[in-house]
Amino acid sequence: MALLEIKNLNITYKMKDKSVYAVQDADITLESQDAVGIVGESGSGKSTLAMGVLRLLPKTAVTEGEALFEGKNLLTLSQDELSKVRWNEISVVFQKSMNALSPVHKIGKQMEDVYLIHRPKASKQEIRERIYELFRIVNLSERVYELYPHELSGGMMQRISIALSLILNPKLLVLDEATTALDVVTQSQILREIMQLQEKFHLTRLMITHDVSVVASTCNKVVVMYAGRIMEKGHVEDVLVNPKHPYTQGLLKSFPSFHGEKTDLRGIPGSLPDLSVRPEGCVFAPRCPYATDECRNKMPELKAAGDGKHEWQVACHRNGR
Amino acid sequence: MSLEVNRTTAEGSEDYVIQLNNVKKWYIQKKVQKKDGKTERRQHIKAVDGVSFSLKRGETLGVIGESGCGKSTLGRLLIHLEDPTSGEIRLFGQPSDVLLKKDPLKFRRNCQMIFQNPFDTFDPRYTLRKILMEPLKLHNIGASPQERLDLMLEILEKSGLTPAKDYLDRHTHELSGGQLQRIAILRSMLLNPSFVVADEPVSMLDVSVRADIINMLESLVKEKNTALVFISHDIATTRYISDHVAVMYLGRIVELGPTDEVLHNPQHPYTKVLISNCASLNPLERREAIEIQGEPPTPINTGPGCYFAPRCYCAEEQCSREYPPLVDIGGGHLVSCCKCCEK
Fold first, then answer.
1. Domains in chain A: how many in total?
2. Hey, is the C-beta of B240 within 8 angstroms of any chain A C-beta?
3. Same structural domain for residues A101 and A69?
4. Distance from C-alpha of B23 to C-alpha of B50, rounded to nearest angstrom
5. Alpha-carbon separation of residue B105 from A205, B92, B221 (angstroms)
6. Three-state DSSP state, B157
C-alpha cells in the first residue's frame, strides 16, 4: 500500500467576489521510501497542494478530494486525530526557518516544548539526550542548545528545523523550499544530510522546490505543476532527461547549463494565467509554442507516456510527439 | 581584460572603463563584548580586502561566491555608493572619487546599478510615468515633453508591456517582478552608461522569466558596448553571461580568468568546492561533490595565512603562514593558492 495517496485533490481559495482555483485534480502517489519532488514556478500551486494535504491552509481555502495516509483520509480526520499524525508521522520543514523559530526562546527550550507536547511524560534527561542525538545527526554542536536563533546562521537554523522535524521519527517528511534561501555549498551539505537521513531512518520525502537541479540530484520521482495542474509526472531519469510536456521542456531550457554551448537559453514567454478563470482547454496553451485548436478547446488528461517501463504520465494532447 | 595585478596606479589608462587597485573596504565594529566580560573596541570587518582588476568596454565580469563574501560590497564600491577604506578605483584612468566630486550627475549617468529586488528599486507611490520621467528630466534627455514621452513608450514596449500607453499610469504593484526588472534594466541602459553593475538581478525572479531578462541584459550590453559587472551566486547563469569570472572568498578574489577556463578547469580548492557542489539538471550525471565542513567564517581577524585554509581539504602547514598572491598560471588565469603556484 502506498504511504500517501492524493486522489483528485482540488483546492480553491474562496474570496468575496471570486474563487481562485489553486490546485485542480491532483493525483500523486508516494510509495514508502520514495523521494518525490514537486517543481513549478511560483504560483503554480505546489505549496498549496502540500499544505492542503496537511490541512495547514487558512479557512478561506476549500479542499476537496482525498489524501490517504496509510489508509486514513487526512482531510476528514478530526483535529485530535490530526494532531496525533502531525509530527509523529508527518512533519514539515518550512522555507524560512528563521520565521519558524521563536526569537525569544533558546533553541533547546523550543525543541523541548515540541517533545513535551507529544510525549508529556518524558523526563528532562530523556529529552536532552534526544535533542543532543538530533544535533549529532544534523552535524551541529551541543552548544546550540543554549543559543538563541539570532546567534545562528541560516544554514544552522535550517539544520535545527530539520532536526526538529525528525524529533519524533516521522514516516513522511515534507520539505517546502527547505534549501532555497541557502548558499550553494550549504545547500549541498544539507541535501546530502537529508539523503543520508532518508536512508538511515527509511523516510519518505516530499520536496517542494522551484529549483529543478535540486530535484534532479536528490529525488527519484518528480511532479511538474503549472497553474494548479499536474503537467507531467514520473521518474526523474525519464522526465528530466527526455521531457515530453512543452512546459517541462521550457522549464529545463530556462536554466543555463554548466557545460556545452552557451546559446540555448530560452525563457517561456508570457506569464501565469489568472487562476480564477477556468479555461476550456489546456492551461498552458496560451504560452505553448505547439498549441493547436484542440489544445485551446479541450483539456488534456494525464496519459501514460514512454515505453511503459516506469510510471510516466503527461497531460498533453501531443503526448511527446 | 588585463589581469596584471601589480599595475601601478600611475599607469591609469583610458583604455579601461574601470580599474581597481588593491581596493579595501573595512567596516569598523565599534564594541565587541568578549566572553570574559571585557569589551574590545575597533575590530575590522574586512568586507572587501584588496581587490584588483580592470575591465574594458563591452566586457562582462561575473563575480561569484557565497553570501557574505563581499560581492555586494564590491558592487557598491564600484559605483561609489561606499567610499573605499584604501586603494583606488579609476574610471577611464581618472580616480572615481574625483570624478564624482567634480560632476556627480555625469558620474551617476556613466555608472549605473541594477539591484536585486525590483520591488524595492522603485518608489511604490509613483506611477511608471513618473518613474521613467525622473531620470530623463534629471539628465536632460529629450528636448520636449513629447520626445520624452516617446522615449518612455519605447522603453515600455521594449520591456514587453503593450499597449504601452495603458501602462504609463500604473503603479509598480500592478506589475510582475519580471516586468519591473526589465523596466529597471532598460531605464538604466537608457542613459547610455559606460559601466553597469548588476547585483543579483535575477535571483528574485521566476525561472521561466530569468532567461529572458539575462538575454535582454546581455544584448543591451553588447549593443551599447558597456562594461558589465555581474554579481551572482548562481554559477550557471554567471557562466552564460560573462566573459571573465572572479571567484571571491572573504573579501578577496581567489581565482580570476576567462569564464570557461575558470569554471571547467578550476585550480583553487574553493572554486572546486563551489563548482562540485552546484547541482546538475541531469539526474543521470551525479558528480561527486567535494565536501567541506563548516560555514563561511566572518571576515574579522582573518589571516595571516590563506583565508580558506581552515576549511580547505588540502591545506598544509605553509597555507597558514602567509596569504598566497594571485599568480598567473597561463592564459590570464589567476589563482591565489600556495599549492597551485608550486606547479
1. 2
2. yes
3. no
4. 5
5. 55, 17, 21
6. helix
- Chain B residue whose CA is closest to A141: B294
Q: Which domain holds residue A288?
A: 4-89+172-314
CB spacing of A255 vs B239 below 8 angstroms: no
Q: Categorize the per-residue pLDDT at B329 as very low, low, confident or very high, splitting at 50, 70 and 90.
A: confident
pLDDT tens figures, B269-298: 999 888 888 777 777 776 677 777 766 677
Per-residue confidence band for B320, with pLDDT thresholds at 50, 70 and 90:
confident
Evaluate whether A21 touches A12 at the Cβ level (below 8 Å): yes
Chain A: residue nearest B291 by CA? A189
CB contact, 8 Å: B295 with chain A? Answer: yes
Residue A321: pLDDT band (50, 70, 90) is low
The overall pTM is greater than 0.90:
no
Q: Do A189 and A294 fall within a single domain? A: yes
Angle between helices A107-118 and A124-137 (to 10 degrees): 120
Q: What is the pLDDT of residues A294-305, one digit of tens each?
A: 889 998 988 888
Per-residue cell: B272? 572546486
What was the pLDDT predicted at B9?
41
Domain boundary among A134, A169, A204: A169
- Does A78 lie in the same domain as A13? yes
Last residue of a domain, one of A135, A150, A169: A169
Q: Examine the domain organization and report whether A79 and A190 are in the same domain.
A: yes
Interface ipTM: 0.78
CB atoms within 10 A of CB A204: 21
Task: Select the residue from A180, A183, A274 to test the B interface by mutation, using most B Cβ atoms within 10 A.
Answer: A183
Q: What is the pLDDT of residues A172-194, one digit of tens each?
A: 999 988 887 777 888 888 888 88
The tens digit of pLDDT for each residue in A83-92 reads 889 889 999 9
Cα A199–chain centre separation: 19
Q: Quick one: which of B162, B240, B170 has its CA closest to B201?
A: B240
Q: Is residue A320 part of a domain?
A: no
CATH number of the domain located at residue range(s) B9-29+43-123+193-342 in this protein: 3.40.50.300
In a domain, A181, yes or no: yes
> Nearest-CA residue of chain A relative to B289?
A188
Same domain membership, residue A133 and residue A51? no
Residue B292 touches partner A, C-beta closer than 8 Å? yes
Residue B8 has pLDDT above 60, yes or no: no
Q: What is the least distance, in Å, from the CA of A220 to any CA of chain B?
A: 9
CATH number at residue A45: 3.40.50.300
CB-count exposure of residue B44 (10 Å: 0-12, 13-18, 19+): middle
